[in-house]
Each structure stands twice: as C-alpha cells, then as structure tokens.
Amino acid sequence: MSKIQSLKIDNQRERFLTQQEIQLLLDTVKDDTLNLFILLSLSTGGRLATIMDIKKKDINMENHIIKLFDFKNGSSYIGFMTDILHKKIQTIYPILKVNDKLLSQYAANTIQHKLKNIFDSLFNIGLDSKDTKNRVVTHTLRHTFASQLAINGTPIFTIQKLMNHKDINMTLRYAKLAPDSGKDMVDIIMENIS
User: Fold this and answer.
1) Which residues pair with 65 in a beta bridge?
2) Are 19 and 148 within 8 A, CB to CB?
3) How far apart are CA 181 and CA 194, in angstroms?
4) Rounded to 5 degrees, what angle do the CA atoms 114, 116, 119 make?
5) What DSSP character marks residue 67?
6) At the topology level of CATH, where does 19-191 sit?
7) Residues 6+ positions from 132 with CB-CB distance below 8 Å
8) Contact in structure between 159 and 39 (CB atoms under 8 Å)
9) Which residues pair with 109 in a beta bridge?
10) Where are the alpha helices (DSSP H) in the chain?
C-alpha cells in the first residue's frame, strides 16, 4: 500500500512592516506590556514563545544582550537590545526577581488577541481573513526583523545567526531585499534608454 503525500501549501508570509509602519505601530500601542513585546520582537526576531519566555536572568543589561530559547529548534541563542528596548527594560528590571518573566502580565494568547485588533485596524483593512501572505499578524514582527536587516545590507549568514535558522534556505528568502540583490544593475540597463 502506497502512502499518500499531502500537498505542500505555499504559506510563506511575504508581509513585513516598513520603518514608517513600525513607527505607526509603536505610536499606536499605549499598553506598556504590548509595547515591550513589540520592541522585543523587533529587536531580537524571536518567535512568540521565545519572547514570552524571557526572564530577568536572560538579560545582560551591561552588554545589551538577551539570551533567547528557540522552542521550535530546541536551542539557545543570543539576541541584542536596541537602545530603545534597553531603556524600556531598565524601567522594570530593578523590580523583577531573577526568574521573573519580562512579560508575565499577559498570556501569549492575550498578547496575540490584543495585537490582532491593532494589526487589523492599522494594516489589514480590506484584506480577506484568509490572505495569509499579506495580513499582518504577530509573526509578521519576526519577518520584519529579518526583512529590515536584509534591506539594510546585513549579510545573509548574519541574518541566519540572528534568526537562529538551522537551514540557510530559510534565511535566503530575505536575500531578495538586500541592497546588492541586483536591482541597481537592472536599473543601469534602462538608464541610457530614452
């Protein structure tokens, strides 16, 4: 008896936030816990479970480093704090106990629900609910992290390391956004044609 293979569905999300959209999101979110979640996501590229698991003992304030655990890959890796994230964590760091989670105020599904409402009102207007390629969801923050790294010329192997991708093929989908993707060369072809 032969085994029936399931069809592969192309569910790769293509949507990421632009710099202007990131600013709009941060300006819109007034809830401190949601704001911290967004900053952690955009600064580390961690998945939801990874961000929700960050404890005080995982934070190195002096070196702006966060130890992250990737539940999908079952491995630990290092993320970095941006200055804005560092300032945000400084406000709560002194009151946390060593094993306290940074985002203990909400459960993961609460964060997803609250962010869904915000994403829908800011970015998903008019999009079909089944349009998984273009809708902004919580995981879009991870794609935004990698996409913005690529857009800003970060080498693909560095993006792989920062995303904790085990396979470079997972990271290569961001290569098309890199400044050296060939777009400038294509523009040169048409430059001298009137």
Assistant:
1) 60, 80
2) yes
3) 25
4) 115
5) E
6) hpI Integrase; Chain A (1.10.443)
7) 11, 13
8) no
9) none
10) 19-28, 32-44, 48-52, 83-92, 108-122, 140-151, 156-163, 168-172, 183-191
pLDDT in tens, 93-105: 999 999 999 999 9
Residue located via tokens 């890199």: 178
Of 56, 69, 62, the closest CA to residue 103 belongs to: 56
pLDDT-based confidence at residue 1 (cuts at 50, 70, 90) = low
More confident residue, 194 or 124: 124
pTM here?
A: 0.87
Q: Domain ranges in the chain? A: 19-191
Q: CA 164, CA 160: separation in Å to the nearest integer? A: 6
CA atoms of 49 and 112, how far apart (whole Å): 11
Q: Answer for the pair 79, 43: CB distance below 8 angstroms, yes or no.
A: yes
In the chain, the amino acid numbered 148 is: Q
Indicate the SS3 state at residue 127: coil
Per-residue pLDDT tens for 3-13?
545 434 344 67
CA 151 to chain centre: 14
Length of the chain: 194
Mean pLDDT of 166-183: 87
SS3 track for 1-43: CCCCCCCCCCCCCCCCCCHHHHHHHHHHCCCHHHHHHHHHHHH
